[in-house]
Design goal:
Layout: E1 10-15, H1 24-27, H2 29-47, E2 54-61, E3 73-79, H3 84-100, H4 104-115, E4 119-123, E5 126-129, E6 140-144, H5 156-176, E7 183-188, E8 203-208, E9 210-212, E10 215-216, H6 221-226, H7 235-243
Helix pairs in contact: 2-5
């Protein structure tokens, strides 16, 4: 038989509210702020558990993503290994760090701010942008200007700014087609395996699936089999469209 390792790890569900039909937007920025604090608490607590090398926080929203629990919630998986995508990201960040003695995401963010055409909004240290390499329609990343590795490195003001940025993204998404946008949200943080990762830069990524009012973006043959994503819209155009929407009660600064 094929040898396998024993199953290990943790899986948690984080309910955002007792309101069954609520969304992060209807709950408001203050509730998102509380969610950010819970994210940190679980990242730190699970990361301290023996054998846990990576704490992955994420949200799947919408039946289109495969969600079976309609109550507003996110999930947290604690792995006994660093998953493939964060691992590959870490390898690239490390390579750039030792080649240039700088952080790859710090440099990318400075370039984005200089060009400005893909910037959607900004909340304190946190910049909301459509990356130049966006794979999904309206894909958005939230990146702090201050180099930090995880939620544990944020101060209370930065928690509040991050809450504003997350609220901002979802509020804009829900205005694109006038209905709640199905998306996946993921947090990329420093592994909890005890290693040193000075090159890692904390950030969030949103992958929406709606590319038109009645069409979804599927990972078809080229995306799944070749790992190459094809889009027919420039990221600058997605950013421009997202910028035009008002986000009441959560002004950027």
């Amino acid at each position: 038989m094929t040898p396998v390792l024993p199953a290990a790890g943790y899986c948690e569900v984080l309910l955002y509210s007792a309101e069954h039909d609520a969304t992060l937007v209807s709950l408001g920025r203050k509730t998102v702020y509380k969610v950010v604090q819970v994210w940190r608490d679980r990242y730190e607590e699970l990361g301290r558990q023996p054998g846990i090398e990576y704490v992955f926080i994420f949200e799947n929203r919408g039946r289109e993503v495969g969600v079976t629990l309609s109550h507003p919630h996110g999930q947290i998986y604690a792995f006994p290994f660093v998953p493939p995508i964060p691992k590959r990201e870490l390898e690239n960040l490390e390579r750039y760090w030792y080649q240039h003695r700088r952080c790859l995401l710090c440099d990318q963010l400075q370039n984005e701010l200089a060009e400005s055409t893909r910037i959607v909004s900004q909340y304190g240290q946190f910049v909301v942008l459509v990356p130049f390499y966006a794979r999904f329609p309206y894909e958005v990343h939230i990146i702090p200007q201050r180099h930090c590795g995880s939620l544990s490195d944020l101060n209370p003001q930065e928690d509040w700014d991050l809450a504003g940025a997350v609220y901002d993204v979802v509020a804009r998404y829900d205005q694109v087609f006038g209905v709640p946008m199905p998306y996946m949200m993921v947090l990329h943080q420093t592994p909890t395996d005890g290693g040193a990762y000075p090159y890692h830069h904390f950030h969030l990524e949103f992958y929406p699936l709606q590319r038109s009012p009645d069409k979804l973006k599927y990972r078809a043959g080229c995306e799944t089999g070749a790992g190459t994503f094809i889009t027919d819209v420039l990221p600058e155009d997605w950013a421009k469209q997202l910028r035009q929407f008002e986000v009441p009660g959560c002004s950027g600064r």
